[in-house]
Specification:
By secondary structure, the chain is an alpha/beta fold. It has helices spanning 23-38, 60-67, 83-88, 97-106, 117-120, 137-161; strands at residues 4-5, 8-9, 11-17, 43-49, 91-94, 114-116. It has one domain (4-160): Response regulator (Rossmann fold, 3-Layer(aba) Sandwich), CATH 3.40.50.2300. The protein has six helices and six strands. The longest helix is centred in the last third of the chain and has 25 residues, at 137-161.
């Protein structure tokens, strides 16, 4: 359900990856940082995973990368995708085609609001963001920079398309 703030209705963006410990956490964190820095309080960011479990933890490298930008995810709990999250979200941005397919299989009625993050940001080719889990730290850094870039573009699109909320 959308949130009412200062006589406007907030727009909720949901980021989805596999385990909700890396890519979607980065995207949610970067979006929340933009919301604070830009003062666009009509946007709410959430994240979840198609195969998430509350027992999963955010890798230390991700916690450290975000901490450098004053984003604290040390207490993040991996959240499985749910009907409630899908229904509460206006825009659902996923990291790769497997996430999109999984969501469409379970929540076909939400198809109009499910997009690859890079696709939503206007990318025509190479639209997936690969999972860095288990890779060297430099791969996490590359993915983080990629996610940050496309979150920024998506943020600007959302701000333009929803200047006063929904």
């Amino acid at each position: 359900m959308p949130t009412t703030r200062h006589n406007t209705v907030a727009v909720t963006v949901l980021y989805v990856c596999t385990g909700n410990t890396c890519r979607s956490v980065l995207a949610e964190g970067y979006t929340k940082r933009l919301i604070m820095d830009e003062g666009f309080k009509r946007l709410t960011a959430l994240s979840c995973g198609t195969a998430a479990s509350v027992s999963y933890t955010v890798p230390g490298v991700v916690v450290r990368m975000l901490a450098k930008e004053d984003i604290d995810v040390s207490m993040h709990v991996s959240t499985p995708v749910s009907r409630e999250l899908i229904d509460a979200s206006d825009i659902i941005l996923v990291m790769d085609n497997s996430h999109k397919e999984a969501l469409l299989y379970r929540f076909l009625d939400a198809r109009k609001k499910i997009h690859l993050l890079k696709e939503y940001a206007g990318e025509k080719e190479n639209r997936e963001i690969p999972d860095p889990i288990g890779q060297p730290e430099n791969v996490y850094q590359e993915r983080a920079e990629e996610i940050k870039k496309y979150v920024r573009i998506a943020f600007e699109i959302i701000r333009k398309d929803y200047p006063n909320g929904k």
